[in-house]
């Protein structure tokens, strides 16, 4: 039986402070929990607790059998109290994320994404998922971007949060620490047409805040700026693309170039 203290702890994980203090975050729903159960027993992520309704646990014994000691059956009402979602699923899990040194990348081949003040959790999670899909080496986010391990980011990543290397860092300092000559691309209005610009197989691609765009301080550190051209009639074109949509287009074009 789940206790009130356990429910309070799980609900506290909606807050960044609680996640930082405990090193834990929440995954909800069958798909994400199954992704977590596939994680190696020795690694950066460890399954600390699983809470599921009995019908789901009974139907999926083979998947959680190795974690029997941390499984707690709960009622639908318990899940309602624990869940950060409007419509709770049948299972959720608490994951511990060990604090390890920031990953290092091979700058000769690594293609990375940098997020400057991307504050919508759905956008951050989707971009992590895109990085996974396109095989990028990692995502670096400024501290004022949405937290990688907030419930909405985790949910939007659809499990990619477990596979993509993630760093939270001041982007100016991070760029200045890169080897001399490492390409840094800014995505801005007025940049070069991405379909005709010369692109490298490695580099850091920067995406800016949903409403303000990329900060001038970061633009000053780029080696090339890119723009996705619009094809709308001149008298009725949209103001901009959603940042996660733009990231998909940009990542796709970088990868396309490698195959032609």
What does this structure look like?
34% of the residues lie in helices and 22% in strands. The protein is of the alpha/beta class and 260 residues long. It has 2 domains: 4-97, 60s Ribosomal Protein L30, Chain: A; 111-258, Alpha/beta knot (3-Layer(aba) Sandwich). The strands form 2 sheets. It has a 6-stranded parallel beta sheet with strand order 7-6-5-9-8-10, with helices on one face. The protein has a 4-stranded mixed beta sheet with strand order 1-4-2-3. The longest helix has 16 residues, at 243-258. It is elongated and about 60 Å long. The mean pLDDT is 92.
- How many strands in all? 10
Distance between the termini: 58 Å
What is the C-alpha radius of gyration, as a whole number of Å?
20 Å
Shape: elongated
Helix content: 25-40%
The helix-strand sequence is: HHEHEHHEHEEHEHEHEEHEH
- Unreliable runs, pLDDT <50, ≥5 residues? none
Number of domains: 2
CATH architecture of the largest domain: 3-Layer(aba) Sandwich
Estimated share of beta-strand residues? 15-25%
Structural class: alpha/beta
Q: What is the CATH superfamily label of the largest domain?
A: SPOUT methyltransferase, trefoil knot domain
CATH topology of the largest domain: Alpha/beta knot
Major sheet attributes: 6 strands, parallel
Strand order of the largest sheet: 7-6-5-9-8-10
Q: How many helices does DSSP assign?
A: 11
């Amino acid at each position: 039986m789940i206790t009130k203290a356990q429910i309070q702890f799980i609900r506290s994980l909606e807050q960044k402070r609680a996640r930082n203090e405990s090193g834990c975050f929440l995954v909800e729903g069958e798909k994400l929990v199954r992704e977590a159960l596939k994680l190696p027993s020795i690694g950066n992520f460890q399954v600390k607790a699983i809470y599921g309704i009995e019908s789901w646990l009974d139907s999926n014994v083979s998947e959680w059998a190795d974690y029997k000691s941390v499984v707690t059956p709960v009622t639908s009402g318990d899940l309602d109290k624990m869940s950060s979602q409007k419509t709770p699923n049948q299972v959720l899990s608490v994951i511990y994320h060990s604090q390890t040194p920031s990953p290092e990348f091979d700058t000769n081949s690594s293609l990375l994404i940098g997020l400057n003040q991307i504050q919508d959790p759905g956008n951050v999670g989707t971009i992590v998922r895109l990085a996974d899909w396109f095989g990028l080496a990692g995502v670096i986010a400024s501290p004022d971007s949405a937290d990688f391990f907030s419930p909405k980011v985790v949910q939007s990543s659809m499990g990619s949060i477990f596979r993509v290397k993630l760093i939270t860092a001041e982007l100016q300092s991070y760029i200045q620490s890169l080897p001399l000559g490492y390409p840094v691309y800014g995505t801005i209005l007025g940049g070069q047409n991405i379909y005709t610009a010369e692109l490298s197989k490695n580099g850091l691609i920067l995406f800016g805040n949903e409403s303000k765009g990329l900060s001038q301080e970061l633009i000053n550190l780029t080696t090339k700026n890119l723009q996705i051209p619009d094809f709308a009639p001149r008298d009725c074109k949209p103001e901009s693309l959603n940042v996660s949509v733009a990231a998909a287009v940009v990542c796709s074009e970088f990868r396309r170039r490698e195959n032609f």
